[in-house]
Design a protein that fits this description.
mainly alpha, elongated
Length: 149
């Protein structure tokens, strides 16, 4: 008796692979945007803070009420990053469903791998930034005697 195995198309694996690639690209774009130059220099920010303190003190002495604060501008970077990580999670789930349904294994494995790599890339990037920040802080503290002395 001859057994035939029905070859199913990789629907879930393909969808998971596509979503994983999209999430990985979005995460890479978000990480590259981290190193963009800031709009304002630190000197202008300090000057604005000093001007705000001066205006606040003048209002307090004259008895005027403080003006209402304007809402801060929306930061879409976090929303986009969270959405990309959710899409990566969906890619992992779709890859798992593809493996469960016995689709050809290559695309579901790639969907799971790329989806997990989006999470790992985000985690490792922030871990590297944290380690570099600690190293910078240690070097500044170690050189305080030469700065003040």
């Amino acid at each position: 008796m001859e057994q035939t195995i029905e070859e199913r198309p990789a629907k879930f694996g393909l969808a998971g692979f596509m979503l994983g690639v999209v999430s990985l690209i979005v995460i890479l774009i978000q990480l590259s945007a981290f190193f963009e130059p800031q709009e304002k220099s630190s000197g202008s920010v300090i000057g604005e803070i000093a001007a705000d303190i001066k205006q606040s003190a003048a209002r307090a002495l004259s008895g005027e009420p403080a003006p209402e604060r304007s809402p801060p501008p929306r930061d879409y970077g976090r929303i986009i990053t969270i959405a990309a990580l959710c899409v990566a999670g969906i890619a992992v789930v779709l890859g798992g469903i593809g493996l469960y349904r016995n689709e050809p294994h290559r695309l579901p494995y790639m969907a799971v791998g790329i989806g997990v790599s989006a999470f790992v890339m985000q985690y490792m990037f922030w871990l590297a930034i944290l380690i570099c920040g600690v190293a910078l802080l240690i070097s500044i503290i170690g050189n305080l005697d030469s700065i003040f002395g």
